[in-house]
Structure formats: C-alpha cells, structure tokens
Amino acid sequence: MAGSTLEIKDLHVEIEGQEILKGVNLTINGGEFHAVMGPNGTGKSTLSSAIMGHPKYEVTKGEIILDGENVLEMEVDERAKAGLFLAMQYPSEISGVTNSDFLRSSINAHREEGDEISLMKFIKEMDNTMDTLEMDKNMAQRYLNEGFSGGEKKRNEILQLMMIQPAIAILDEIDSGLDIDALKVVSKGINEMRNDSFGCLIITHYQRLLNYITPDKVHVMMQGRIVKSGGPELSQRLEEEGYDWIKQELGIEDETVNA
Amino acid sequence: MAKKAPEVGEYQYGFHEKDVSIFRTQKGLTKEVVEQISNYKEEPKWMLDFRLKSLEQFYKMPMPQWGGDLQELNFDDITYYVKPSERSERSWDEVPEEIKNTFDRLGIPEAEQKYLAGVSAQYESEVVYHNMEKDLEDMGVIFKDTDSALKENEDLFKEYFGKVIPPSDNKFSALNSAVWSGGSFIYVPKNTKVETPLQAYFRINSENMGQFERTLIIADEGSSVHYVEGCTAPTYSSSSLHSAVVEIFVKDNAYCRYTTIQNWANNVYNLVTKRAVAESNATMEWVDGNLGSKLTMKYPAVLLKGEGARGMTLSIALAGKGQHQDAGAKMHHLAPNTSSTIVSKSISKHGGKVTYRGIVQFGRKAEGARSNVECDTLIMDNESTSDTIPYNEIMNENISLEHEAKVSKVSEEQLFYLMSRGISEEEATEMIVMGFIEPFTKELPMEYAVEMNRLIKFEMEGSIG
C-alpha cells in the first residue's frame, strides 16, 4: 500500500468538560477517500479538530497514529509537517498577511531549510491552481480570508490543499455554503488530488458533495461514535431515506451527543 | 523550516563603538554649559540669547504631571553636548573609520546607493557626514545639518526657527531650545518636487549623553518633500535622554511627509515635540514608529491653518518589559474644509504599557472640517496593558468626527489556523503581528520596511509560550 496510514483508535474527546467523542475507530490509508456523515451535533467537526490538535479539544482516551508515530504528542505545526491537513469549516481571517505570502510560508514550512520553493515556481503553481479553482487572481494579494465570501474561503482552503499536497487531508464541511457551481469546482480540485497515495477524510452532512467525489468508504456518526460503515451505496441510501432507518436499526432515539 | 528563528542573545543593534569624542561639556545643566555650547559653535549673539532665555524657561517650568513616569530622570546626570569630530564631512571617504563602522552595521552605505538623495547622519550630537546630490543643489534645495544652516543660511533660519514650537511650549521644548545641537535643516523652494526621500540616521553613542537635535523643514508653496529619519541606539544601563524638537512649515499647496523609525535603547527617555503648520491645501503627514526606549512621550501635531489643509498621523508603538509608549497625535482644525486622519497601532507585551493620547480640535472657523481617528491595540499577554485617551474639542457645529478604537489579542483560532499549515507558533505569532502593523510598514521606503520587520522580529522574540 502506497502512502500514509492514519489510525484513530477508541478516541474520546472532551470540550470544556463535556465528552463529545465516545470512542471513534477509523483507519484511513493512502489512496482511500472516506466520508464521515451524520446529522448536526454528532461530533463530526470535533473529530476533525481533534485530529489536527485544536487546543480547545482534550483527548481523554484513545490514540491517533500516523505511520506509526503518535500524533497526540505532536504540536499542531508538527502534525501538519508529518503530513496532515485540515480544510476548515470556518477559516480565520488574518489582516495584513497576503494570501500568497501565507501560502508560500506554508509550503516552505513543509520543506527543508535551504530548499524553499523558488518564487517563480511558486507563482506559476499558484496561478495554475487558481485557474483550476476558477479563482480571481487578485485573491492572491488579498489579506488572508479577510472579506472573503463563504465560497471564496472554501476555494481558498482547497487551493492550500492542492499546493501543500499533504499525505492525509481532512475536509470539514467543505461543501457548506457553496452553490452548485462552486461545489463542482471545489470537487474538481479535490478529485485532481486523487492518486494511490493521497488519503482523504471528507466530513459532510449532505450527500450532494458525494455525487461529485465518490468515496471508497462511508461512515455514519451518531452520539460521538461511528455507528455504521459501508461503501458508496450507504451514502446513496442516506440520500434517499435519511438517517431514521439507522436510528431504528440501532435503537437510537436522539442522535446528538448531548442526549 | 521556512525561516530560521531569530538567534537568542546578542541584540544586533545593541553594539557600540569606542567613543571618539573630542569635546564635551561637563555633566549637568548650567548657564555656563549653555554658553560653552554656543561659544564652541561660534554662534551669533541672538542664538546665545535665545538659548539662555530658553534655559530660564526650562528652570521655571514644572515637570509634566501627566503621561509617563519621569521621576527617575535626573537632569544633573546628563552630558548636554558632545562633539565627535572636528567638522561636518561631505564625502564618505573622509568620515572617521570608527564612525563608519557603526554606520556599516546599520547598513547605511548600501541604503545610500539605492535610495539616498542626500545623507546627513548624526553621530552623537553632531552631523558628521553630509552628502547632497548635485541635482538637489541645482534645484535649490537646502539639506544640511541645523548648525551649518545657522551659519550659512542665517536669515532664512531666523525667519522660521522656534516659530511653531516656542521654547515656552513645554519643559522639554525649553530644554531643547537651550542645548540643541545637530538635526536637519531642509528648505525646498517653490514648486520643487524632491522625488527621493531625504534621510538621516541618528544614534546616541555615549553613556548618559543626551541628544537634543533640532530639525527645521520648510516646504515652500507647491513643493513636495519626504524626510526620513531612523534611529537605533546601543543598549546602556543608565538612563539617557533624547529630547528633540521638529518644526515644519508646509506652505500653500505643498506636501511634506516626515517618517521616523525610532528604536531607542530600553533606558532612553524619548521626549519629543513635533509640530507642523499646514497652509491652504497643504498636506502634512507624520509616519511615526516608536520602538524601544524606557518612556516615549510624543504626539506629532499638525496645525491645519489654511483652508483645505490635510493632516495625517500614522503611528505604531511597541512596548515590552519595563517600557511605556505614551504616544499619539494632535490635529488642530483652524480653517474651513480641513481634514485629518489619525491611525495609531500599538502593541504591548511582557508587561509593557501603551497609551494612545490624542487631541482633535475643531476651531470656530473649521466649517466643513472632518477627522477620522482609528486606534488599534494588540495585547500579547495578560501582564501587558493598553489605554486610549482621546480628547476632542469642538467649537463648530458643521464638522464630522469619527473615532474607532479596537483592542485585540492574538487569537487561539488564528494561531491554530496558521499552525495547521505547518507554520511554527513563533512564526505564526510574528505573521499576525506583522499583519497588524502592515498598514504602517507599507508606507515606509523599502529598506526601512525591511529594517522595521527585522526589528519587530527581534522584539517579538520569546513573546510566546
């Protein structure tokens, strides 16, 4: 198997003393696209933030392992350099820092000192990638996410993904707030990443994204756990029938964590 | 790794060269010291009288009871005049080697090649190096140290000297008027545009030595000029005083920008009076960066005297451990349709204190005048503080005044976002801080922006964790 392997074992996560994840198990191999679906409030975004190491989320039990390395012992930037990437649902705005300066710093952070990307190469790659994502060129010189529309922010996250080329990416509700045209463009970008070493975890509560990006595996999350896994047919069934049949099957009354 | 973390330990700008001074007064401030300075400089009688009268003013006036803490400032423990070498130099070759070494480390020769139209670099209290490009001379622009201007352009000098900031303005303008030495004198003739910035570097390089430069700029009708001064100072243990006076006249339709980056050692009291008069449709811009010093009290002012005059102050202040930056701006709208903008960016860290103190005044004649004030503060940790003290005086009903103040911290979310792309916490913090002051740095000439960024990086060292 080419690429990296991210293993999540019995992961328990608290935020401000409240347990949100109650034992998540998931393994993503390079070359695989996984989708985690589920209604709102079931812990999907917590899972993505915890993998990346957001300081608000406290892992109380379990393991996250990337290629045999203990991710939980790494700082956020070390996780990124080890090959993880999180496309965020709500990316921060940073005034005074241009998008292109930020992107170049990010790329260089992944490279050895003395092996920084040349400016010309960087500009060329960024131009090409922005074309793919149908982004306005002046977005390179705008301040990072400042005044970006919802759709522009999402495209910008995918721009970073495509230029940083991580081993494993987590896309947290990358489809929310996108109209159908933007969704197609973003999906095109993500599909271009597909190869036999890149692993991807797509978090969404709509099936529609998966019409454009076909996952290899689909997982349903409820009450802070993965309660059902299957192939692409599982997301199809969710699209047609909703989540109620799973709740019935598993005897779940309220799917959210707070229950 | 993208960038190498700044090395901990030696502070690049904290070096000092051997003292090569050949004449200095004894410590303390007396009538004799003032006479000595004036005699030594072979000044005309009127200047000696002016100095002595100012000294009396200084004795009479009380210490300011507002702003920063001046209790440890001991006027008797300061040397008021030091002359480093015989005369002002015109060419780089003639500059003494040790002084050159100091400048070398500040990167002056390189900067000169690219950007300088004329250099007057102040070493201790005297301008030792002065170089003016021939085309400036051809244009009739006068750019020299203030002492030489007194000798060589006495009539022009006398017409403007002390007219915007009289000795009696405040205790420190009185002090400067009594013991001033060095500084720049600039006269730009009517309708003359000076395209490249005129620059001067200032340094204090002798323990306990005060620096009292006096700068006078006259931008005649329809002219335009940009003056840039940058300061770095060696770090010394005992207190030092910098008390400059800067007077600027911007005549009808003229434009003047005055850019300062000051990075005084952490023991320096930086008490500066800066004021400009802007006549009809004139524009005066202060771009003012305050780093370092123990205490800075500085409020660049513009008297908007002529109809349609414009004033701007764009400033940043950074205060670290044991430092207080009490800085701001003053805009006096004295004529119709005048406008002003104040943008103040402050950063406090490691228990530092930043205060924005500003005045916007609309006089009775200020029909249709408008002003916009924006104060942003970035507080790096819980020990550091910030205050905003705006004062508005409005004597005319038909004006517009906007004031916006914002205090922020480096947010967890921003750090998480940048770090999730592989950027280290240190670099991420630096990026956020640099972004915060970007509205300031983008206004600087290129090599100053580079130096500024470098200084901020040094200052930010160890600001995290």
TrEMBL record, chain A:
Locate the ABC transporter domain: which residues? 6-248
Q: Which InterPro entries does this chain map to?
A: AAA+_ATPase, ABC_transporter-like_ATP-bd, ABC_transporter-like_CS, FeS-cluster_ATPase_SufC, P-loop_NTPase
Record key words, sorted: ATP-binding, Nucleotide-binding
A single GO molecular function term of this UniProt record = ATP binding
Superkingdom is Bacteria
UniProt lists the family membership as follows: Belongs to the ABC transporter superfamily. Ycf16 family.
Among NCBIfam families, the record links this protein to: sufC
State the name under which the record lists this protein: Fe-S cluster assembly ATPase SufC
User: Could you tell me which species this protein originates from?
Assistant: Halobacillus litoralis
Automatic annotation (TrEMBL), chain B:
InterPro entries named among the record's database cross-references: Fe-S_cluster_assembly_SufBD (IPR055346), SUF_FeS_clus_asmbl_SufB (IPR010231), SUF_FeS_clus_asmbl_SufBD_core (IPR000825), SUF_FeS_clus_asmbl_SufBD_sf (IPR037284), SufBD_N (IPR045595)
- The UniProt record lists the SUF system FeS cluster assembly SufBD N-terminal domain at 130-199
User: Which residue range or ranges hold the SUF system FeS cluster assembly SufBD core domain?
Assistant: 202-436
Similarity-based family: Belongs to the iron-sulfur cluster assembly SufBD family.
Name of the protein in its database record:
Fe-S cluster assembly protein SufB
The encoding gene is sufB
